[in-house]
Each structure stands twice: as structure tokens, then as C-alpha cells.
Design brief:
With 102 residues, the protein is an alpha/beta fold. It has five helices and four strands. A four-stranded parallel beta sheet has the order 2-1-3-4, with helices on both faces. β1 (2-7), α1 (10-18) and β2 (22-25) form a beta-alpha-beta unit.
Amino acid sequence: MKFYLISDNIDTLTGMRLAGIEGVCVHQKKHVLAALDEAMEREDVAVILMTEKLIDLVEDTVNLYKQTRKTPLISEIPDRHAESDVTASISRYVREAIGIEL
């Protein structure tokens, strides 16, 4: 089982490839959705990493997958252009997932 990256930043994709994580770089909503759908159907992918900008772009679809599918796990990662605080992202995810405010 492996990680798979869906990024909007070529530098993030390059860095992950150096770590052995394959993925794609996409920018338009339709391409993000296509990449996410394809990754969700791959049997060898255990965790999908997505940059925060792309999560925001297709948030409804990501939330639907998180609620209806056990695998693969979708995880938001900041990239070098991250606008939000990582701690805030984790807190928001916990709040949405289990209803607890941190």
C-alpha cells in the first residue's frame, strides 16, 4: 500500500517524488476531481495526500468520500505556499470528523 499525491504545485510533487511518492499536478476543478476519482479506485493506494488549495476547491467531494469510504484515507497537507496554519487544519478536521472543538 502506498501514498499518492494530488498537488497544485510542481515543487511539492517533485519533493514527494524524491521521497518515492507518485502523484499528479493539477489546477482546474475538473482535473482535480478526475485525479481524485482515479486515485480512490486504485487498489494499491492507502493514503491520498492533497494540498490545502485543492481540498478547498473540491471540499464537498472530499467530505463525501471521507464519509462513505473507509479507504483510501484522504489527508490534507500544506505546501510551501500554504496560507493556513497546519494546527488549524488539524483542529478543523477533528471538529468535522467527531464534533469536538480543540
